[in-house]
Write a structure and sequence with these properties.
The chain is 39% helix and 4% strand. The chain is mainly α and 364 residues long. Keywords: Calcium, Disulfide bond, Glycoprotein, Heme, Iron, Lignin degradation, Metal-binding, Oxidoreductase, Peroxidase, Signal.
Length: 364
């Protein structure tokens, strides 16, 4: 009896030690930095290299925006619906967009991603990392340069693609809300709320190819800040085209120098997504937590997360938010196209000064 009690006490103690060591065990890498897993040590030199030589010393500029867009265009390349017809449906976040650059960059929705693929390739070549892991890693590190961003999760261990993703897996700005929601549901069972959360990415974004006459035209007035302005400004009445009219996938925007995608406009007003969209206005905490969770899910599409190594502690802490939610100068609550029927639009101050005109994101 006494032996039995002692034995169960010992096994309890062992279980406690295992659980405890899983929480506290740290590895010190050769450069002195600490991480939870020795395999993550290889990421520190890559981090330093991309911060210095891809992201211009830690900026939240064009290469960061393009790297973030690339995480999506690689990961969303998966379709169980296509696979069910007996055809390869894509491998998700498997690097196929860069490995099969010649094929996938010819897909209409991938217009322009060849630029960042070509910029990233030398980094992949000089480090020991899979293309699939690099694309997601570079996106997460890039976002950590943007004030107000969440600290995104990073996993390694993805296997590189051996086949390209099929065409039409990346949504287009002229797709209907029905088709966009169906595409995300097919790719990874994303809910409409998760789709809205993923679109927080458009707070650090600009378009080069929607209206090619005005490359670098941002989607909100603060493209270097991970703030809620995108969710505010997409709800304002559109009054102008920043460049030429008649571009596919573009609708009128409320601010000079700002471009509005038709898909963002419609998602902000559709009854399935409007209240979720509005809920991000002036809610930095929700912006951070919801984007972090949805991004994590996106970056492991096509993989079982239990087969991957969590290296999230390698990611630097992003700078604190650097803006207060506001209406751009010259605009106010009167310009809101209220779409959510349940909750009123939050009360916000208007920026002082003459009507806002946004500068393009400079190429670097
Ligand atoms: C409904 C889904 C989406 C559509 C239709 C869409 C469409 C677009 C379009 C048309 C552009 C402009 C490309 C150009 O002309 O240069 C763009 C830019 C961008 N997108 Fe999306 N997008 C979607 C979802 C996402 C998601 C889920 C992410 C990331 C998680 C993302 C990240 C970005 C970023 C960061 C840019 C800016 C790239 C730059 O500044 O160079 N997008 N998107």
């Amino acid at each position: 009896m006494a032996f039995k009690t002692l034995a169960s006490f010992v096994s309890l103690l062992a279980a406690f030690q295992v659980a405890n060591s899983a929480v506290t065990r740290r590895v010190t890498c050769s450069n002195g930095q600490q991480t939870a897993n020795a395999a993550c040590c290889a990421l520190f030199p890559i981090l330093d290299d991309i911060q210095q030589n891809l992201f211009d010393g830690g900026e939240c500029g064009e290469e960061v925006h393009e790297s973030l867009r690339l995480t999506f265009h690689d990961a969303i390349g998966i379709s169980p619906k296509i696979a069910a017809t007996g055809v390869f449906g894509g491998g998700g976040a498997d690097g196929s967009i860069a490995i099969f650059e010649d094929i996938e960059t010819n897909f209409h929705a991938n217009n322009g991603v060849d630029e960042i693929i070509d910029e990233q390739k030398p980094f992949i070549a000089r480090h020991n990392i899979s293309t699939a892991d690099f694309i997601q890693f570079a996106g997460a590190i890039g976002v950590s340069n943007c004030p107000g961003a969440p600290r995104l999760d990073v996993f390694i261990g993805r296997k590189d693609a051996t086949q390209p993703a099929p065409d039409k897996t990346v949504p287009e700005p002229f797709d209907s809300v029905d088709s966009i929601l169906a595409r995300f549901a097919d790719a990874g069972r994303f809910s409409p709320a998760e789709v809205v959360a993923l679109l927080a990415s458009h707070t650090v974004a600009a378009a080069d190819h929607v209206d090619p006459s005005i490359p670098g035209t941002p989607f909100d007035s603060t493209p270097e800040l991970f703030d809620t302005q995108f969710f505010i400004e997409t709800q304002l009445k559109g009054t102008l085209f920043p460049g030429t009219a008649g571009n596919q996938g573009e609708v009128e925007s409320p601010v000079r120098g700002e471009l509005r995608l038709q898909s963002d406009f419609e998602l902000a007003r559709d009854q399935r997504t409007a209240c979720e969209w509005q809920s991000f206005v002036n809610n930095q905490r929700k912006l951070q937590s919801a984007f972090k969770a949805a991004f994590r899910k996106m970056t492991v599409l096509g993989h079982n997360v239990r087969d991957l190594i969590d290296c999230s502690d390698v990611v630097p802490n992003p700078p604190a938010p650097a803006s207060q939610a506001h209406f751009p100068a010259g605009l106010s609550h009167r310009d809101v196209e209220q779409a959510c029927r349940q909750t009123p639009f939050p009360v916000l101050p208007t920026d002082p000064g003459p009507a806002t005109s946004v500068a393009p994101v400079p190429p670097s």
